[in-house]
Design a protein that fits this description.
The protein is of the alpha+beta class. It has one domain: Lipocalin. The protein contains four helices and ten strands, in the order H-H-H-E-E-E-E-E-E-E-E-E-H-E. Strands 1-2-3-5-6-7-8-9 form an eight-stranded antiparallel β-barrel. It is globular, with a radius of gyration of 16 Å. The relative contact order is 0.20.
């Protein structure tokens, strides 16, 4: 007698592969990515903690809350990233490493997960005062909206979503992230 395979991921490798699939690996070419980014990012101002207001959920962070991303330039010029969130009462921290790909704009990064899996990280919107940002990937299927504060002005958030949707980003697949 054959038993049906469990459809829920139980192995770390399966979870990793599903997450990479969600991220769209392999990503598109860098030239296409550059047409989507903001014109300039002051890395010093961008560093620090950002509160994730909404995101396209991935297998690893679906149903999560209190998401933050903290960026710090290290001595080698790479960007140390701490991605922290809570899910089902447990704390999780991931520490991918970022690397600026386009040094002219500083808006296209490579984000390396688990030291081996790189992915494009595009800063596609950024407030003049660095109070909020939107980050995506070349396919526009994944999106994160973040702000410097735990909450974001609802009108600014809605205007940002409308603008992103108009430009083809998958806003409808995002979920709000509770911050407490």
């Amino acid at each position: 007698m054959k038993f049906a395979r469990n459809i829920f991921p139980t192995q770390p490798l399966e979870i990793l592969l599903r997450t990479l699939n969600d991220l769209g690996f392999p990503f598109m070419d860098s030239q296409r990515a550059e047409t989507q980014t903001v014109r300039n990012v002051d890395l010093e101002r961008f560093m620090g903690t950002w509160f994730v207001q909404s995101h396209t959920p991935l297998l690893i962070d679906d149903h999560s809350s209190n998401q933050t991303e903290t960026y710090a330039l290290n001595a080698s010029g790479a960007i140390d990233v701490t991605y922290h969130f809570q899910r089902f009462g447990r704390e999780f921290t991931l520490e991918p490493e970022g690397k600026v790909i386009n040094k002219k704009t500083n808006a296209h990064w490579s984000m390396r997960f688990f030291k081996i899996f790189p992915g494009d990280y595009l800063i596609v919107r950024l407030a003049d005062d660095y109070s909020y940002t939107a980050v995506s990937v070349p396919s526009k299927k994944l999106l994160w909206i973040m702000s410097r504060e735990k909450s974001m002005d609802p009108k600014i958030y809605q205007d940002l979503c409308t603008n992103l949707k108009k430009d083809g980003y998958a806003v409808d697949s995002m979920r709000l992230v509770p911050q407490s």
